[in-house]
Amino acid sequence: MSKVKVGLVQMSCSASKEENLQKAIAGIKDAAAKGAQIVCLQELFTSLYFCDVEDYENFKLAEKIPGATTETLGQVAASLNVVVIASLFEKRTQGIYHNTTAVIDADGSYLGMYRKMHIPDDPAYYEKFYFTPGDLGYKTFDTKFAKIGVLICWDQWYPEAARLTALQGAEILFYPTAIGWATSQDEATNTEQYNAWQTIQRSHAVANGVHVVSVNRVGFEQNGAMKFWGGSFVSNPFGTLLYKGSHDNEETEVVEIDTDATDRYRTHWPFMRDRRIDSYENITKRFID
Hints:
This protein has about 290 residues and is an alpha/beta fold. The chain has a single domain, classed as Nitrilase/N-carbamoyl-D-aminoacid amidohydrolase, CATH 3.60.110.10. Helix content is about 25%, strand content about 30%. The protein contains 5 helices and 15 strands. Strands 5-4-3-2-1-15 form a 6-stranded mixed sheet. Strands 6-7-8-10-13-14 form a 6-stranded mixed sheet, covered by helices on one side. A hairpin with a 5-residue loop joins β13 and β14.
């Protein structure tokens, strides 16, 4: 199918997992009512962004995948005939936790998961305390409506991740995200950071000739010290924005994309054809001394 309608659910979160889940389900239903066939939720949508502190109590937020949340979302997906991309805090086993996205097909079946590969450790983003790096590699999922690739937040800064996912035939790259501004920052710094975040992802669209869909949260968290900047967007295969969300509001948007555009862009701008794969051996080194 070349024409696909993707839904983006940009929302704020509370301390209540059930409240957040029900808000996400309402967003999925809203997107489906607007014609969405694939709906992407933001990173870790069932909770506040808890990685702002290193607190062992937060491990209680984790859950099995597949599990109760994917079962609930599977029922929603089947009832609406939509694909759901759901980012969750996975408890794999005692002492091993992942930042994981589950993909649920339009018939409600669980297609599989992607575990976040790049784990940040920065002020207010202490993810290495919680998450074991992914060990499933980069993956694509054959959904009812398109073959999609899923990466998560910090992954979006790495062109290698986008490339390796695109090389597996992904027609659309989805990035569930949780990123924001420290409220102590000046406006110029905020603008620069958001522009860099959007630009790097649009560059993945251009370099790989695929659509990119990025879904971020909004709202003040960490007792007001962090404002999640929203700005969810859809880019076509040449970096043109088809949609950009606000920085402040909860929004559910549906955007129609044409996956056949990949062939047109890759033919006229043959970056994939002209890759010198024989010269890239050193890319696996940490640094070339």
